[in-house]
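Before a colleague's protein record goes any further, I have to sign it off. Thanks in advance; the entry in question is below:
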Amino acid sequence: MSLGCREARARLLDDHRGRLEPDAWRELAAHLATCADCAHQNEVERLLDDALDHRLPARPAPAALRERIAAMGASARRPRRWHGALVPALAVAAALVLTVPALVYRQTAALRAAATAGMVDEAVADHLRIAQAQRPLEVESGGIHQVRPWFEGRLDFAPVVPFSGDATVPLRGGALAYFRDRRAAAFIYGLRQHTITLLVFRADGLPWPRRGLTRIGGLDAYRTHERGFTVILWRAGDLGYALISDADPAEVTQVAARFSPGV
């Protein structure tokens, strides 16, 4: 049985309290291994639990807040014995308000950076598998109108490719590939002696980068360099794209701009 996100998140609290049965724990662990959003939520919950357990002594409440809390206790009409416990409790609450957001922000940034790096590594690995294969093309190019129909029945989506190649960057053909946990269409282009791979896949459920985006043509894309390869990631509607090549980064960027709809 595979969990949906709603059911997985409902189990997080029981997991943190040690109340999950072994089978339920294994199902949750399998879901967290493949869902970046739920894994992030799990980490946030863990950080909050740690903050509450240790009362975050590293950052005390501001002096002004402590004075206001003390004044509230002194001005009460009928002092009660629990007033003495109220002030430190409120101080802990104030410390949580000040400290937890910073912890969560740093953890979120680290998780997103790791998720983005994972997508980049996957793109480079897919490109290398295709470029180094003995028979990298499963369909030889007779033009985009021959290559794109070849994927019908082999994918659960219809790949949209605005750039069909030209004399400088010819479309050599296509092949079936995988990107992380899903099938992808690989369109292979040439640039002199270099290979350019365009992967097209369903965009849903992937940890797309939200920071460091660059405007390339009409695309808001994430561009980076990894192990001598330029990798450009973007999404358009329901589809995701990864363009990878060891050609000159400026030329790869120019090619990426040609995949902008309407160009």
